[in-house]
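Hi Y.,

Following your request, here is the sequence exactly as I used it, all 435 residues.
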Amino acid sequence: MRGDAGRERWSSALGFIIASIGSAVGIGNIWRFPYIVGANGGGAFLIPYLISVFLFGLPLMMLEFAIGRSTGSSVVSAFKSIRDRLSFAGIAVAIVASLVVSYYLVITSWVLAYALFFATNRPMDFGAFTGSYIPLVFFLLSGIAVFLTVRSGVREGIERVSRILIPVLVVILLFLVVFALTQPGAPDGIAFYLSPDYSRLSDPTVWTAAFGQAFFSLSVGMGVMLTYGSYLEGGNLFRNASVIAVADVLIAILAGFVIFPLVFTAGLDPASGVNLAFITLPAVFLEMRFGMLLGALFFAMLFAAALTSAVSMLEVPVAVMIDSRGYSRKRATLLVTGVIMLLGLPSALSYTALDLRLFGSLLLDLSDYIFGTVGLIIAGLIICMVGGWYMDRARICEELGGCEWQQRAYLVLIRYCVPAVLAITLLATLIQAGG
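Below is the corresponding structure, written out as tokens. Let me know if you'd prefer a different format.
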């Protein structure tokens, strides 16, 4: 049984797809994905990555869409409608999404700061930036931007912002690809990026890296796609989810054609990982002609990706408060944003002059591991178990469509294969951290 007929809806299937692409395409697509490819066998890594996306990530995305559209509710109400005692599982998923966005806003704020630094011709060294309290100002600004977007509603806020920012992101990305490929270091950069080392395919850590990147990149496992699916009325879920997944993969791959040619042209370390976006690339832009413009465009593109992802994550607990507590959207957004900003404040302070740490580790780094890695995998397992084992099979099949053998194959994937992959990825992550 679908939810309230008066519930907010997307203006069209296209609006839903663009908003979902905005959720899926985040900072990790543009700076994390290329580095992971280079560090895990180059072009050979694309094999486990594409398998992960389309054989495991895509079915989980479709399940979230099916649960959301079938129930017409956010994650807590949706799980409760499937089985009353499962509402606690929905609460756990909403908490994970809230905790992830609390620290994700910190990184979003850095991107906003760097976009403004380059746009105003005043680039700042990352050490000097995080050695001050300036990051707190941008943390507040990023929170306000996300708050205003979600507060404006599904059509007027989330969909409208996504319709503007995603095309802007794609145009900037394509421009930067063309520019990067004309640089003298482009051949070496592309060789590092895509030269396949097939021997790495026998390394289990390469596969777990692919699984982890696929699930995080697609924004599955947080209830985001379930919430977005609850605002959808019609359309083919497999087709829509496939378009979103393909767009997500293409943007990630194209990002590598920007980053590595620029890094190799400047003769810098292509394996600088987390430092790539905020230390390595700014140094590259400073040495290039029109570097300020290029830097401003690059970080504007990153901000578009970060903002649309942060908005989608904030929408999860906001929708829960609207559906479960009967709050107005304005009240729910104000309350949830306030709580999340307080939760994110320790992570923000860890990269300031205060240098806030716990057990010797920066709080943002701990949050990323505990919530953005382990928490996401556990939330994904919860969604698989609830949707695959407790939701009525007929409801799933009705939402997915297709013939009987396709539905049977899908249920095998979502009940057995995807949970197994998530469990293996979780175990490998914990073992790696312990080692």
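The two ends are 48 Å apart (CA to CA).

Thanks again,
Q.
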